[in-house]
Amino acid sequence: MPKLKHYADNSDQERFKKAYRSLRHNFKYTLTHFDHPGMMRDNNIIECFNGIIKPRLKLMKGFKKYENMDRYLKLFILNYRFHKLKESRFEERRGLCPLECAEVVLPEINNFLTFLRDSLKLDYTSSSP
């Protein structure tokens, strides 16, 4: 039994050392929100975005060219701005897309793909029976 405790102590010490090194290296970023009054104190928005994009990128297994990755991320972010917020700690933001939260006036069609199809006159319907 004491041997298990010894392993737990080493594990706890290693985790503490890792956390300490990370904090020491990134400390200047932990107080950034004091320099910018409108900035949130947490990174929940970024973590939400990462939770959406990581599974998609994992399915794609990378990009052969940097330009392709750059284009994909720009389109992904543009498309993300049209998605309605399901949960928000601010009730007035629920059901609105990020562009609407920023008070951008959107056309009645506020779906990115529908907007592109209509504005570019694209039709993806099959002509075969």
List keywords for this structure.
mainly alpha, 129 residues
Gyration radius from CA atoms, angstroms: 22 Å
Oligomeric state: single chain
Helix content: 55-70%
Shape: extended
Tally of strands: 0
Instruction: Write the H/E string, N to C.
Output: HHHHHH
Distance between the termini: 72 Å
The total of helices stands at 6
Query: Beta-sheet strand percentage?
Result: under 5%
Instruction: Catalogue the unreliable spans.
Output: none
Q: What is the residue-averaged pLDDT?
A: 76
Q: The biggest beta sheet, please? A: none
User: What structural class do helix, strand and pairing data support?
Assistant: mainly alpha
Concise summary:
The chain is mostly helical. The protein is built from six helices and no strands.
Descriptive report:
- The protein has helices at residues 2-30, 32-35, 44-60, 66-80, 98-101, 112-120.
- Helices cover 60% and strands 0% of the residues.
- The protein has 129 residues and is an all-alpha fold.
- It has a domain at 1-39.
- The chain is extended and about 65 Å long.
- The longest helix is centred in the N-terminal third of the chain and has 29 residues, at 2-30.
- The model has no long low-confidence stretch (mean pLDDT 76).
